[in-house]
Design goal:
about 325 residues; Nucleotidyltransferase, domain 5; globular; 6-stranded mixed beta sheet
Length: about 325
């Protein structure tokens, strides 16, 4: 079993978002990866540029960041050929590691656009080294860029950044500064599509929170009527909790609630919604133990949102009344 540390560089529409191809907003230009053995020693590498066909013109900002000219891609192979060789190089049994979650999303999106069958198993577990760096060295919340982590750990900067192979190499070197058990216990789950093709539920418990991935629903109303989703057990003692603030829509369109466990105190629930390929939705519910101070912040968030809705309804009523009075 090896670790594949992956990094991608991609292009986008040079004419702005309104001219992008919806199925593939980011077209991969380069795949870079290093292969580490079970002791995190570098044993191999893969790197190849890809000739763009969806957006043949390289966006000027991408050219600046990658420091490459369009002619650098003229003799490159197209994505299906490179992707096939990449996955063959990876081998059948590998753990995928990335700096942030977006590379795996865009890789799967490019595979689908080109009509290629995804070789990933489901659920797709992977290791987000950016997140794990924050867990081990910072506050679990910050998401630093790659160069910050390299400087923080004193890793020699003998390769330039914003090159897929170089960034994969640096991510691999960062992994060597993290205990292997801290990597393995903090795995992530990819959400590009429902993690279980059969639509089953997933429940995992991490060190400071729990995560529940629901089955699929037709819409948000149907989801929020499902007790398996809306009831919150305490992930520390597995006992039922009492909801002190019922589920409400927060400013980020996520749902929040506040529950209390007799033994472990306040728990904050959060539900995010993701679209499936078939047009349905599934939900990611996280539950985290919080302090009394943070519980008050949840209560204040609910009051603020209620007040904004009240003012909005009042303004709409006044406009309607004014219109009918004319």
């Amino acid at each position: 079993m090896n670790y594949i540390v992956l990094d991608l560089e991609w292009n986008q529409s040079p004419d702005g978002k309104e001219q992008e191809t919806l199925q593939i907003p980011f077209e991969i230009l380069q795949i870079g990866a290093v292969k580490l053995d079970r002791d995190l020693n570098l044993i191999d590498q893969f790197c190849e540029r890809i000739r763009p066909v969806v957006y043949p013109e390289i966006h000027y900002k991408i050219q600046e960041i990658l420091q490459l000219a369009p002619e650098d891609y003229q003799n490159a192979r197209e994505f299906p050929q490179v992707a096939k060789d990449f996955f063959s190089w990876c081998g059948p049994y590998s753990y995928f590691c990335t700096w942030g979650p977006s590379d795996l999303t865009e890789l799967q999106r490019n595979l689908k656009y080109h009509g290629m069958k995804s070789p990933f198993s489901f659920p797709l577990f992977f290791y987000d080294i950016q997140k794990i760096f924050s867990i081990v060295y910072e506050d679990r919340k910050k998401r630093r860029n790659l160069e910050f982590a390299v400087d923080y750990l004193g890793i020699p900067k003998d390769q330039h950044f914003h090159d897929a192979l170089s960034d994969a190499y640096y991510t691999g070197m960062i992994m060597k500064h993290i205990r292997k058990r801290d990597i393995l216990k903090n795995y992530s789950i990819d959400y590009y599509q429902h993690p279980k093709k059969s639509g089953e539920e997933i429940y995992v418990i991490y060190e400071t929170y729990s995560k529940y991935i629901s089955a699929e629903f037709d819409n948000r109303i149907a989801a929020m009527q499902n007790r398996s989703l809306t009831q919150i057990p305490c992930y520390l003692c597995h006992q039922n909790t009492v909801q002190e603030i019922p589920w409400f829509v927060g400013s980020s369109k996520s749902y929040y609630c506040l529950s209390r466990c007799k033994e472990h105190g306040y728990l904050r629930g959060k539900i995010r919604f993701k679209k499936s390929e078939n047009g349905k939705i599934f939900c990611i519910r996280t539950v985290k133990q919080i302090s009394s101070e943070n519980a008050c912040k949840i209560s204040e968030m609910q009051r603020t949102i209620r007040e904004k809705k009240r003012l909005k309804r009042r303004e709409e009523t006044m406009v309607t009344h004014k219109f009918h009075s004319v």
